[in-house]
Design goal:
The protein is mainly alpha-helical. The protein has five helices and three strands. 59% of the residues lie in helices and 11% in strands.
Length: 179
């Protein structure tokens, strides 16, 4: 296997890693602020009847599904992080993939941020609540994952072509090694 990474590729991976750390720290900081300012206190209305900050200990997934499945969620997060690391490592350092780098970094950051909560607390700290649509309470890590996944699907459907993902093919890697 060719393990020689170009200088440009090493820089991309370093920036990806540093961005994940920065985004996870931001997520953890907002959750810390939520614990300090919201736990066991009334909700803080940001826009009356629309948006409020409301503390919730969530031991499940989105919409309260799969309550108390800590080990399952941690395994899923580790699997997602491993897949993203593999894709980032294999991804060409072509300009066309810059947005994919950003989106994968955001998804990884969200997965890592919520995984840290589950490992440390056995629950995820949620605190953002859209009252107007009674949307389940969520956090910054959830925003990273949801928005990035949505944008990734849009890009996958309308921007990237099937052959843009050939770098992930095991057959393609085998051909590359044989050269």
């Amino acid at each position: 296997m060719n393990t020689n990474l170009s200088k440009k590729k090493k820089i991309f991976l370093l920036v990806d890693f540093l961005m994940i750390i920065l985004l996870v720290l931001l997520d953890q900081f907002t959750k810390y602020l939520a614990v300090i300012n919201l736990e066991d206190k009334p909700a803080i209305k940001i826009i009356d009847g629309v948006l409020e900050l409301n503390f919730l200990k969530n031991s499940g997934a989105a919409f309260g599904l799969l309550q108390n499945q800590k080990v399952f969620f941690i395994l899923v997060a580790v699997m997602i992080l491993c897949i993203i690391a593999y894709v980032l490592f294999r991804m060409p350092d072509d300009k066309k993939y810059n947005i994919m780098h950003i989106l994968l970094v955001m998804i990884a950051s969200g997965a890592a941020g919520n995984m840290i909560d589950r490992v440390r607390n056995d629950y995820v700290v949620d605190f953002i609540y859209f009252v107007i649509i009674n949307f389940p309470i969520f956090n910054v890590a959830d925003i990273y994952v949801t928005v990035s996944t949505f944008l990734f699907v849009i890009l996958f459907l309308f921007y990237y072509k099937e052959n843009d993902f050939n770098f992930l093919s095991f057959n393609q890697q085998k051909k590359f090694r044989e050269k």
